[in-house]
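Contributing new complexes? Match this layout with adenosine-5'-diphosphate.
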Amino acid sequence: AEDALRQAQKMEAVGQLTGGVAHDLNNLLTIVRSSIEFLRRPNLPEERRIRYIDAIADTVDRASKLTGQLLAFARRQALKPEVFDVSERIRAVIDMLRTIVGSRIRIVIDIACEHCFVEADVTQFETALVNMAVNARDAMDGEGTLRVRVDSVSSMPAIRRHAGGPGRFVAVSIGDTGVGIPNRLGHIFELFFTTKEVGRGTGLGLSQVYGFAKQSGGDVAVESMVGQGTSFTLYLPRTARGIAPDAEGDRRGSRYEE
Ligand code: ADP
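Output block (do not edit by hand):
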């Protein structure tokens, strides 16, 4: 009976998953279909014709982006954990973050934990940073500050009981000064939950962040204030390598603007 229940739950999850994509794709197909209908009209002014063709091209691009992301998600490879220095990795991807948010957004890097090592899949870690940076950019509407902070903390918010001494976790925060998250805060990590318009948002980003965090023995937390901004914090267990006898000993710290 337990197997049957698990099977049923699995089928329900798959149903929700495919239902979400089918819904988004259907909306996009509707746009293509009606644009074609408009194009069929006789004596259509040239300028209108161009507009409908552009709409079709744009919509098809969005649809293939959606399926591309879905395929990437489905094909997710098994995690290949390796030990790496978190701050070093972040410095290595700053140019990429700069490209994502654009030149008008300030990027402030705040490293309070030098030589903090974790054991996790590097590519997935970078993908999580990208996903959070994309969301931060979308929340800021072209102007604001992206704050990237690395710190070592004694516990993850959700499981304070398991606090295991100072510096047990590396906390990587991506903060923005964007619109904030009004309500339904509890839904944002769900697969396919998005408030973005059809084709722009897929609702896959934070699912990846969440899945990566959990599979790496960590967690992700969010704090947000409407009109002020949002901050996501990714917690990863710190590995033995890099932990000084006095675990806070290497918190020399550096803070600078990119
Ligand atoms: P997507 O970005 O495709 O919508 P995500 O899973 O990355 O999917 O995000 C889900 C939703 O969470 C977004 O649509 C948005 O409503 C909300 N969200 C995520 N990050 C932020 C942020 N930094 N500021 C405001 N809202 C956010």
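Reviewers usually confirm one structural detail per submission. For this one: The helical segments are 2-40, 46-74, 86-92, 94-101, 122-140, 205-215.
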